Amino acid sequence: MDSDLLELSQALGSACLQRRLLIATAESCTGGWAAQVITHTAGSSGWFERGFVTYANDAKIEMLGVCPETVTRFGAVSPETAAEMATGALKNSKAMISLAITGIAGPTGGSPGKPVGTICFAWCRAGAAAETEVQVFSGDRETIRRQAVIHALTGMLRRIDTR
């Protein structure tokens, strides 16, 4: 694990321990990479509750409770789907905060409206509505996925620190 990801893992763990928070993740295009970064730091069972890797639309619907209509209307790569993923991760865990990542890492699968590199994020805190964001990253598949993980974890840390 490179130093940037290691620092994020440690900072997130420290922030969660100080506030007694448990995290759940819901990932699609990153395939569990965010959860891997979080759990890289020893003692992560003290702040990481569980992760969902819901690559297929049916998995998003079955495991996280994403509404089929949301996927049909907005697509799997949308702020709406990301919000429902983050909310579903909380509902199906004992975590107090969650993050969700869904996107198009490439090299194929993009469209004019959603080019390769389009990643939708959501962060949710128990009892609150999910916050969403869309980013378009460039690079090859692994570069896009890495940028998505860093963005998601940095966003989570920022939201924890402003609590």
Describe this structure as you would to a colleague:
The chain is α/β, with parallel strands linked by helices. It has a single domain (about 5-160), classed as CinA-like (Maf protein, Alpha-Beta Complex), CATH 3.90.950.20. Helix content is about 45%, strand content about 20%. It has a 5-stranded mixed sheet, with helices on both faces. Strand 1 (about 25), helix 2 and strand 2 form a beta-alpha-beta unit. The radius of gyration is 15 Å and the shape is globular. The two termini are about 30 Å apart. The mean pLDDT is about 95.
Main traits of this protein?
single chain; 163 residues; alpha/beta; Maf protein; 5 strands; globular
Question: How do the helices and strands follow one another from N- to C-terminus?
Answer: HEHEHHHEEEH
Give the CATH level 1 class: Alpha Beta
What fold name goes in the CATH topology slot? Maf protein
The CATH homologous superfamily is termed CinA-like
Compile the SSE list and pairings.
Elements (H helix, E strand, L loop, with lengths): L2 H17 L3 E5 L5 H6 L9 E6 L3 H8 L3 H7 L4 H13 L5 E7 L14 E8 L5 E6 L4 H21 L2
Parallel strand pairs: 1-2, 1-3
Antiparallel strand pairs: 3-4, 4-5
Helix pairs in contact: 1-6
